[in-house]
Amino acid sequence: MEIKKLSEALKSSSYPGRGIVIGRSGDGRYAVTAYFIMGRSENSRNRIFIEDGEGIRTKAFDEGKLKDPSLIIYAPVRVRGGDTIVTNGDQTDTVFENMEKGQSFEESLRFREFEPDDPNYTPRISGLIHIEAGKYGFSMSILKSDNGDPAECLRFTFTYDNPKAGEGRFIHTYMGDGDPLPSFEGEPERVDISGDIDGFTDSIWNSLNEENKVSLFTRFIDIETGKYETRIINKNN
Hints:
The protein is mostly beta strands.
């Protein structure tokens, strides 16, 4: 698979929806992740990211305008020891709770399926960063309808045991704008990971469609020590 510039992959679509990037910094030192949300409706755009312990959660920017919290208020990021869970919905909690019971990332997601937002049936995308004893690997998952048919849930998990420095994978909910919105297809895109956390964050934010972007979270985790740095950008300030 050809490696793409992450900025160009983001600019190529006005509406990739929600997206997860996981990879390794150019110097090999850090596990890198990003999660962004976009929105077309007033309800979807009325959100911000806030820190919540070692993770983050979404919050209504204007509580008076909040209409339906069911699919927009959740914890996208939670940390469990050497595991960092990043998802586009409340399946973050499902993964966290079932891994606590000894199940794997993939097994945990068998309890969930795509979102019930007819006619889009938005895919649930999830990522798991695992760091242990100086070793790093990650997994990505997508749960999606069968070409818009809600009668069947298609489940795909991709695992990367030894991520290369300066490379990552990018998965997002939609292939572009549309009505209904077309679900992501294929393997997570292979993208470059470059710069320090501030350069990486700015590059993503500046590459997202200005009208539709809502919030961005990024994190660099030191693979040897587990210490991390986080950045959050909200369009609503």
